[in-house]
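Have a close read of this protein, sequence plus structure tokens, and explain what the tokens say about the fold. Thanks in advance:
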Amino acid sequence: MPISCQILFRDRFVPKVTLFEQRDYLFGRDSKCDVILDHADVSRCHAHVRFDGVHWQINDLNSTNGICLNGQRGNRFQLDTPMVLTLGSLDLQLTPISHVELTTDINHAAWLRKRVQSALIQCANEKSIEGMLGSAQQTANALLGSDRAALIFLDSNASILACRGYPQWLMDEAFDGSTTLIKQAVKTAAPVAANNAQTHHHLKYQPSVQRHRIKAAIACPVIQAGQVIAVFYADSLRDHHRFTQQDIDLLQAYARQLSLHLALRSIDEQFDQLEHRLHRHYG
């Protein structure tokens, strides 16, 4: 039976890997590992995972920080039921998955890709920026499964100008999501995610996280002419909700589409202004 492995990074998106019975897997930081774990507490070659024909076996490879299974420390474990494997301080959710369930997951992923492609086409065919924003926000909110989501426009100082999406954020100064995560997305000009905000080394002290008990959040910048002009932001107030690489890909696709729309609108406006000046000059 294959294993579904979710790598529960606290300060970024959650990758998902499927382990199959026909081969062994080496977990660690080294680029030669089968499952590469970019985490300071994980050794270069930390653990070996294999299927012995009956059970999945997990073996520690004399790592610096050891391994635990469901909080129990040891050198070797057998996996039969869903468990949390901890390498150093990094948690991995391991869940045996039947081939039928695996096929269902693959079909769902294929359906989701088609849904995203269809939504992007609809988004591109919108005649106005407002229509495109509405389409992008609604689809992103539905596919992310978040509790709150919005497109947040910023000024030249990266301060919030306006929000489009979550109704309670439409009023001035009403945004109560994680501004820390948004600032990080602006600073790095790259998507950022936190999948355990309550224990995140920066976010856990933020008033918005404490007040609303935000569990997970994601922010993806919209870049125009080399400058971040807006951020797609979403968060979840539910336990065990995690944002994945697929969510990042979705938001980045919408961010690129929005940037293209804004660029084309800017070109149209420049042509209109030029035409107006020529008309005034030549009568």
User: Anything to note?
Assistant: The radius of gyration is 23 Å. Residues 118-274 form a domain with the Beta-Lactamase fold (CATH 3.30.450.40). The mean pLDDT is 75.
